[in-house]
Design goal:
Layout lengths: L1 E6 L3 H10 L4 E7 L12 E4 L5 H8 L4 E4 L6 H9 L3 E3 L2 H7 L2 H10 L7 E4 L2 H5 L7 E5 L9 E4 L13 E5 L5 E9 L5 E3 L3 E6 L4 E7 L5 H18 L3 E9 L5 E7 L9 H4 L4 H10 L12 E7 L6 E2 L1 E3 L1 H5 L4 E5 L4 E2 L4 E8 L3 H14 L1 E3 L1
Parallel strand pairs: 1-2, 1-4, 2-3, 4-5
Antiparallel strand pairs: 6-9, 7-8, 7-9, 10-11, 10-12, 10-14, 12-13, 13-16, 14-15, 16-21, 17-20, 18-22, 19-21
Helix pairs in contact: 1-9, 2-3, 3-4
This protein binds adenosine-5'-diphosphate.
Adenosine-5'-diphosphate binds next to strand 7 and strand 15.
Amino acid sequence: MQKIGILGGGQLGRMLLQAAANYPVETFVMENDPGCPAAHLCHHFTSGDIKNFDDVYNFGKGLHALTIEIENINVEALEKLESEGVKIYPRPSVLKTIRNKILQKEYYKSHDMPSAGFIITNNLNELKEQEDFLPAVHKLAEGGYDGKGVQIIKTKQDMDKGFDMPAVLEKLVPIYKEIAQMVAINEKGDTVLYPPVEMVFDPHLNLLDFQICPAEIETRVLWKVEAIALSVVRNFKSPGLFAVEMFINRDGDVFVNETAPRVHNSGHHTIEAHYSSQFDMLWRVMLGYPLGNTEHILPSIMVNIVGENGYSGDVKYEGLDEVLKIDNAFVHLYGKKQTKPGRKMGHVTIMSREKQELLHQSNKVKRTLLAKA
Ligand code: ADP
């Protein structure tokens, strides 16, 4: 039986393990918190630091393959493991490009993929020389996530909000729609695409709020989205599962924002709403099975359940019984013991042929199911 490890033990690891239970595979997880969401669902749990060379190397060396649920991994250890024959999904070379926004933007540019124009700034002084480039978005090269490390800079006065560290200054795109396209690619280079999802954000938390699948976009735009996403993924020359986030403007122009080289928040609805979920698909890739069917069974909306503002501590869910009574809602709570404002605690997927029904039930879920302390 194949031995496959997951670096990081959050909700993505947890849902990967739920899908792994269907296959002949022995699962391993490494993460520093033994109480993390994935810890009790794997066959073998190791406490360790995913940023530490020795911890990652020692964890990976007896395994057939490794995957990640977060980009911030010790890449040198992954490279050594790869050179010794351990398969890594995605390849360490991809992680190196993606986890640094400067390198990621240069990758899109050098492969002629449409992405907002940018310049590199190394400190605040360099930023302040770029008044002519505004309006723009300043993005920390390394270490940002979930909107932290991103500042919109429209005017000279906003420049003080910028980063005094290496960063990308990117042209502000007038966003009409924000979408994500998931692509799976196997060892042979065969690819499958999921229908793109459309994301709606909470302007206060800057965190994914709910998402509709399939995205409502014109066919001519869909073709561009699919072609661009395929090109982004193929040029990485790595098997795995990828979520390519893109912006669409009112003219139907498509811009790549960023790529996640792993299972992703934008694919959670695929657990119930699609024949093969993103988690099922990644196991198919890693275990060498045929790629799955990405078609949707029904349209869906996915709502993130995040920690309520003003509450920190041991989580208590309000409204759970009421949401469990909704007969087209699928509830996922991630088993995190502590809540804090904005923390991803779970998600709910609603499925229906009717868009009005999707919107109605998702609003109900958002109002009803609350993570408090
Ligand atoms: P993170 O990696 O932290 O999720 P993103 O690069 O996805 O950061 O940016 C967070 C959000 O900021 C995006 O979802 C989008 O709404 C907005 N944003 C990012 N880049 C641009 C841009 N060039 N123009 C307009 N809005 C942008």
